[in-house]
Amino acid sequence: MFNAFLQLLYPKLCFACEDPLFESEEFICTYCRISLARVDYVQNSPWWLRAKFDGLFAYGEVQTFFIFASGGRVQHLMHAIKYKGAEDLGEFLGRWAGQSLKKSHFFKEVDCIIPIPLHAKRLQERTYNQAECIGNGLAKGLELPILPLGLAKFAQTDSLIGQDRTRRFEILKDSFEVLTDVKDKHILIVDDTLTTGATLLAAAEKIKAAGAKEVSFFTLAALK
Question: What global pTM score does this model have?
């Protein structure tokens, strides 16, 4: 009774559309769960996703969960995870994605997950790594181990907004360092949002150079 009263005074809102949630709903409303723009896992990863990496790196598989559109509900979710401290939302969506991927037999050959790290200064400011939150949920959904400290970002980079893929890669290529044994393993690199793919490419180059057998990519959302 008291919880119901609190819900009337301070209703929990859907992170995607900001409508009040019913008591049985968690993080996002049922309508948004059904209608958010998602990738169809019945088929292989879409061509526009593969095109970000084809000819640049010999990856194993690339997949995403949501299709990102500026100003849309997916952007609201990603903004909450990245800037508003919604760590639980990130893990919830990562687990949802992992369960869907597992049912469709994606990443079944992967040995472990490594999230894209934040630089120490950025991590101190934000207090958490959004890619790690998503990776933790994904690991549970896929039933795979995660190495949250497997990769470190030692060089702090300026904002990449407005930079093309080539320039982003040049800025990022020497910013990562592998801190764990990846020799002969199939590594799944996880990040929050995929735009040009430069961050994933820079991390993948380092992981492959450290002896990984294969590298695959997953992001919670991707821009077409």
Answer: 0.91
